[in-house]
Design goal:
Order of helices and strands: HHEEH
Largest sheet: 2 strands, antiparallel
Strand order of the largest sheet: 1-2
Helix content: 55-70%
Structural class: mainly alpha
Number of domains: 1
Strand content: 5-15%
Distance between the termini: 28 Å
Number of strands: 2
Radius of gyration: 14 Å
């Protein structure tokens, strides 16, 4: 179990570093990553922004795409 937790922690750290190192070129509003994160935050059913805990599966997928 501890080994799995370490792997998840390492992956989360890699994601954070990738997001911080992301080079936004050109117009900020044309960035796919910025657009993805903006849309991800909207809860259209409730008309509010989602809590951070709902981002995990989506950010994991984004991290995998970023590595390719």
């Amino acid at each position: 179990m501890e080994q799995s937790t370490d792997a998840v922690d390492s992956t989360c750290l890699d994601l954070c570093i990738s997001l911080l190192d992301y080079d936004i070129r050109g117009d900020l509003f044309e960035s796919v990553t910025i657009g993805f994160l903006a849309v991800l935050s909207i809860d259209s059913g409730k008309g509010v922004l989602k809590d951070a805990c709902h981002y995990t599966p989506y950010l994991s997928g984004l991290s995998r795409l970023h590595r390719c």
